[in-house]
């Protein structure tokens, strides 16, 4: 096995486990959230208005950092997910680290994007580098990323806006999140209500939202119980999603930094395997062979 294939194999080991690895979106949106400012218009009153203001402010973020912790049904088994990442819209950069444990196994992965360079690490000694445009084709991207492309496009800033779709938004007093006083809001929305809330949003945001809703459907979710914590500056600090699915679903997202620069930190060159000279098909074949395909 060549040095290059061994590097790809290390990535594959982690990728096979990370079937529900969460990350923020790359997309073509103009803002980090791409969220409409007023949800579905189903809920009314001061609580709904406060949530709409927070969602609108999230939409205007140029950059943010976040963590996601909890459990998701995954690919047939419940998985514990532990992710942290950051996203900058202009200039466009993305970084995510994810750890997933399921059924006694665990895996780690890190992804970094900036300009036309993408770096992937899956537990080996070296990173894989390739041109982002190499995986522009949806089918090739699906093969090369083991079906994880939807996870890499998932945007936690958008998900914090899902509460705006609930018709029963309520204010639940104040709580401290990360040392900051916040107001706690909650509500419940069906998947149909979440779908209707996507109408009028940019196309890329709609596609990401529908992919996530399709995952909920596959997991047996009928409705989501959501909680949102908003600080005194109308900024989302924390968001929690729970559901009575076929297997546990309980994820909490914390936005740790708002509108702070998130420059790309490229891995050291002596630890990077550059695959940029390959074609997209060749890259896809290498990764597929590494997982025994």
If you had to describe this structure to a student in words, what would you say it looks like?
With 293 residues, the protein is of the alpha+beta class. Helices cover 27% and strands 34% of the residues. The chain has eight helices and twelve strands. The chain has a twelve-stranded mixed β-sheet with strand order 7-8-9-10-11-1-2-3-4-5-6-12. A hairpin with a 5-residue loop joins strand 5 and strand 6. It is globular. The N terminus is likely disordered.
Q: How are strands sequenced across the largest beta sheet?
A: 7-8-9-10-11-1-2-3-4-5-6-12
General shape: globular
- Tell me what portion of residues adopts beta-strand conformation: 25-35%
Which percent range fits the helix content? 25-40%
H and E string: HHEEEEEEHHHEEHHEEEEH
Number of helices: 8
Task: State the distance separating the first and last CA atoms.
Answer: 15 Å
Number of strands: 12
Oligomerization category of the chains in this entry: single chain
- Mean of the pLDDT scores? 78
User: Rg to the nearest angstrom?
Assistant: 19 Å
Give me the secondary-structure category.
alpha+beta
Largest sheet: 12 strands, mixed
Query: Any low-confidence stretches, pLDDT <50, length ≥5?
Result: 1-41
Summarize the structure.
The chain is an alpha+beta fold and 293 residues long. The protein has helices spanning 3-17, 46-59, 138-144, 149-152, 156-159, 191-197, 203-218, 280-290; strands spanning 63-72, 79-88, 93-102, 105-114, 117-121, 127-131, 170-177, 180-190, 223-231, 236-243, 249-258, 272-274.
